[in-house]
Write a structure and sequence with these properties.
2 copies of one chain form a homodimer.
Chain A lengths: L11 H8 L1 H16 L6 H14 L3 H15 L4 H9 L7 H15 L6 H9 L4 H23 L8 H12 L10
Helix pairs in contact in A: 1-2, 3-4, 3-6, 3-8, 4-5, 4-9, 6-7, 6-8
């Protein structure tokens, strides 16, 4: 059960933004622009960064749901998601994505872990300033979401099918649920 | 120097939201409602939670600036800020605030570190659901800001006077700076 009185049966962050829509609206707007806004990183790639960071923070709800969204968006290449979650360095993502995921992994530990050489490696494979910026902000944002969801012990479904359905909806974008009564 | 090309001389998160106002606007709106919106936690207390988490994340810029804002808002009781940053358990904040700061400290580590007994302790001293929610979200939000600021190596002034001035401005609220050219 969640640590505070939220709608029973509503999973993850959804129950929390329904409890406090005043703050929730900005969380949804932020994630919508970061993961669905115009970008030279594909939506599938950005969802993969979110899932990768959430796995490292051991937040099952965010990891499962954003992995599902990423698989949905990768389509025929969806296996890449599980490859990255199992062993990023051995996966078939591009060298640029490996360098960006490496930066995201450093951010997950602590901001200061990101070193000049991590940035240089990403640039070497063609990463731009805005791609580096967005990678850091996506990783930082999921360090927030993960702590919000787990810190209040919100409902985490265990059935993989629930996440598959969730991933399909998330692929279409993020919109605020109605506030709880 | 920052890892990406931001305005030289603009400190901390300000340079980053000027670089990417599309995402920055929601970060500012979020922090404005969390730290300045209507709440039974005082603005000084909420700034103190932000400074406390930032110190634990070793993010000098956020720690110094939010500590300064908290001192400004505590007025004659401003010594309490440094007491908490030096040794929270021995400080003169209320038992309720100690219980909430304890929760914030757990969130800083990882969401799952917040246990039933941490929540029960806060309730015992009168903390409400919304106060517990906001404490967790403020702590999670600063885990994001800290990583954003340090992950991109944004400018961190070292002169305490700079932060004193910043704290005075921040006490009046958070508004977006104009975008960089």
């Amino acid at each position: 059960m969640a640590h505070i009185k939220v709608d029973e049966g509503v999973p993850g962050i959804r129950s929390l933004v329904m409890f406090r829509p005043d703050t929730g609206q900005y969380l949804y707007e932020l994630v919508q622009i970061l993961l669905r806004g115009e970008s030279t990183l594909s939506e599938a790639e950005r969802e993969l960064i979110a899932a990768y960071v959430s796995k490292r923070n051991d937040t099952m709800f965010c990891m499962m749901s954003h992995a599902a969204a990423s698989r949905e968006l990768y389509g025929n290449n969806k296996n890449i998601v599980d490859e990255v979650l199992n062993d990023m360095q051995q996966s078939h993502v591009s060298d640029k994505m490996k360098a960006l995921l490496n930066i995201a992994g450093k951010v997950q530990v602590l901001g200061k872990e990101v070193k000049e050489e991590d940035i240089a490696a990403a640039r070497q494979y063609g990463a731009t300033d805005i791609e580096i910026h967005d990678t850091v902000l996506i990783a930082a944002t999921f360090c927030m979401f993960n702590r919000y969801v787990d810190g209040l012990a919100s409902l985490t479904p265990t059935d993989p099918k629930v996440y598959e359905e969730m991933g399909k909806r998330m692929a279409n974008g993020y919109t605020m649920p109605p506030p709880s009564n």
